[in-house]
Specification:
Layout: H1 2-19, H2 25-45, H3 48-89, H4 95-109, E1 113-122, E2 125-133, H5 150-157, E3 161-163, E4 182-190, E5 193-202, H6 210-240, H7 251-268, E6 272-280, H8 282-289, H9 291-306, E7 314-319, E8 322-327, H10 332-348, E9 351-352, E10 358-359, E11 362-370, H11 377-394, E12 399-401
Parallel strand pairs: 11-12
Antiparallel strand pairs: 1-2, 1-5, 3-4, 4-5, 6-8, 6-11, 7-8, 9-10
């Protein structure tokens, strides 16, 4: 009877010690069963007066050894996880792809995760990046960052915030009543600079295990670097396809978009319009006021024209004061409506110089339709350019329809 009570006491003490370790319930049960078997062996060979001490030593050694083994196992698992994270997050420089990989990894690392969100943080502004829920639904904005809420606070302070219960935490005092469970907000940082915030929520209340926190911090560090690299790549790519003066797409972007538009038109058996435009009288602006003011006028004019096009359309600076507009799935009638609106807007356009002078400009252009006026990008541009040239020479201030493809499309002649 004494041995039984002693055994139960030692096992209870061992259970309490194991509860302080970062172990699963299954691992604790296995260790206690093993300890029980070893104690049974001790009872057969150890004198009763030494039994209590031997049982205690055995329990301590087993728990200590298991703690070391568990720590080593966790570190090995974390190294494997880190390797997977590195491979997944460096596999692409496409920012949306990187963000999707981050939320996917965060859901994988934490048991019972409900939703994962990423918000990018640029110029003190939070912008939705990506999301994933337990049902596999991607990139749905479950909630926008609230003023003085979790996401905004993490971004501003640059510190991890763990909310064990949304019902009781001060950051959620004005949150919708249906918001329940726990959530953690982790800053994605490069040095001291926060580039984003990752939130991970769960249905049940309570904290996250030490292993989960370590893995999430590793993910956050990897994610911050991947997001920074992808953002830099996106910025460089955008500059390579953007005209530095006007902010519009440049000739390189135009060529690639036109090729893609032709492929799509062939696949869907549809038409599209190419409109080439040139400002009337712009040369005198540069001659009178200089190129700096001329660039300002260009930006103002091009913004007026660009503001009236559909999101499916494409506008680019072809060179100098020339623009090319591609109208997706449009015929000549639709193109004429667009050019009439452009002429109306240009008739109203006035640019005031610093000296108070008013600058007014006209516009001329040519319209070509794929595949009526050309079956390749070069042929369509050539046809629209020929119509533009005729308009500049004989019908300034109008848009002419293309006739047919002409010779090679050389550098456009200077227009005045």
């Amino acid at each position: 009877m004494v041995e039984t009570k002693l055994r139960l006491t030692v096992l209870q003490q061992a259970r309490e010690s194991l509860d302080r370790e970062d172990l699963t319930d299954s691992e604790k049960d296995i260790l206690l069963k093993l300890l029980d078997i070893l104690i049974s062996s001790l009872e057969k060979f150890v004198p009763p007066e030494n039994l209590a001490g031997e049982m205690q030593i055995l329990a301590e050694k087993l728990i200590s050894s298991q703690a070391l083994l568990t720590l080593a196992t966790q570190q090995a698992d974390e190294l494997d996880a880190l390797k997977i994270l590195s491979l997944n997050l460096t596999a692409s420089l496409d920012l949306p792809t990187v963000l999707d990989a981050v939320v996917k990894e965060s859901m994988r690392l934490v048991s019972n995760a409900r939703t994962a969100h990423i918000f990018l943080y640029t110029n003190n502004q939070l912008e939705f990046g990506a999301s994933l829920d337990a049902d596999g639904q991607k990139n749905r904005v479950f909630s926008h960052p609230r003023k003085d809420g979790l996401t905004e606070t993490v971004a501003q302070k640059g510190q991890v915030i763990l909310v064990e219960s949304m019902k009781t935490h001060p950051l959620y005092k004005n949150a919708p009543p249906e918001w329940t469970g726990s959530i953690i907000g982790i800053p994605l940082k490069i040095g001291d600079k926060v580039v984003g915030v990752m939130n991970l929520s769960r249905d049940h209340i309570g904290g996250f295990s030490a292993a989960e926190l370590r893995l999430l911090n590793m993910l956050a560090n990897q994610a911050a670097v991947a997001i920074s690299n992808a953002s830099l790549h996106q910025s460089i790519s955008r500059k390579a396809y953007t005209d530095t003066v006007t902010g519009l797409a440049n000739r390189r972007a135009l060529d690639e978009h036109l090729e893609a538009e032709i492929i799509n038109a062939r696949r869907t058996n549809t038409h599209f319009a190419v409109i080439m435009m040139d400002l009337d009288g712009f040369k005198s602006v540069n001659d009178t006021y200089g190129h700096d003011l001329g660039d300002q006028v260009l930006r103002a004019v091009f913004n007026v024209i660009a503001s009236g096009i559909r999101s499916s359309d494409f506008i680019a600076r072809y060179g100098g004061d020339e623009l090319t507009l591609i109208l997706a799935k449009s015929n000549m009638q639709a193109a004429r409506l667009v050019t009439e609106k452009i002429l109306e807007n240009m008739a109203k356009f006035v640019y005031k110089t610093p000296g108070g002078n008013a600058v007014r400009l006209g516009i001329s252009g040519g319209i070509a339709i794929y595949p009526m006026h050309g079956r390749t990008a070069t042929e369509v541009l050539r046809a629209a350019d020929a119509a533009l040239y005729d308009a500049k020479k004989h019908h300034r201030g109008t848009f002419l329809n293309a006739k047919s493809a002409t010779g090679p499309l050389d550098s456009l002649s200077p227009k005045i």
